[in-house]
C-alpha cells in the first residue's frame, strides 16, 4: 500500500493557530504532509516568502511527518509534484467552502486529486491571517491567534 500524502498549501502570512490546528490534525490523518508556502497574487504579504517558510518550519518542527517547502503556481501542480493525492484546506465558513469548491473545479483536478476540507476548530473559526495582520497593525494583542499552540 502506498503512503497517503497530502499537501496543505497557503500563504501563511502569518501562520496562525488555526493553520497549526489543521497541520496537527492532518499529521494524524496522513503518512506525509507537505505544507506549501505559496504566493497568492490577490494578497499583499507582510512577511517575505523566506520568513513565512521559516515561521512555518519552526511551528511544524514537532511533527515528524510534516515538511515545509515553497511552491509557485497552481496547487494541483504542486500536489502532483509532491506525490500527493490529497489537498488539505481549512474551512472556516460557507464562503471558504464555496471558494475551494470553485477552485477545485476550475483547475480541473482529476478524480485522483481529492480535497480534504476539514472544518476549523470552533476557537479558530473567526481567525484569519488578514485579521491578525490588521490587529497587529493597530497594536492589538495577537498572542491567542498566532504562534505556538497551547
Descriptive tags:
single chain; 150 residues; alpha/beta; five-stranded parallel β-sheet; 5 helices; globular
Describe the structure.
By secondary structure, the chain is an alpha/beta fold. Helix content is 37%, strand content 17%. It has five helices and five strands, in the order βαβαβαβαβα. The protein has a five-stranded parallel beta sheet with strand order 3-2-1-4-5, with helices on both faces. The relative contact order is 0.22.
What is the count of β-strands? 5
How large is the radius of gyration? Answer: 15 Å
Proportion of beta-strand residues? 15-25%
Low-confidence stretches: 110-115
The separation of the N and C termini measures 35 Å
Average predicted local confidence, pLDDT: 81
Describe the global form.
Answer: globular
Question: Order of strands side by side in the largest beta sheet?
Answer: 3-2-1-4-5
The number of distinct helices, counting runs of at least 4 residues, comes to 5
Structural class: alpha/beta
H/E element sequence: EHEHEHEHEH
Note the main sheet. 5 strands, parallel
Helix content: 25-40%
A few lines on this structure:
This protein has helices spanning 17-29, 49-60, 75-82, 94-106, 129-137, and strands at residues 5-10, 32-38, 66-71, 86-88, 114-116. It is of the alpha/beta class and 150 residues long.
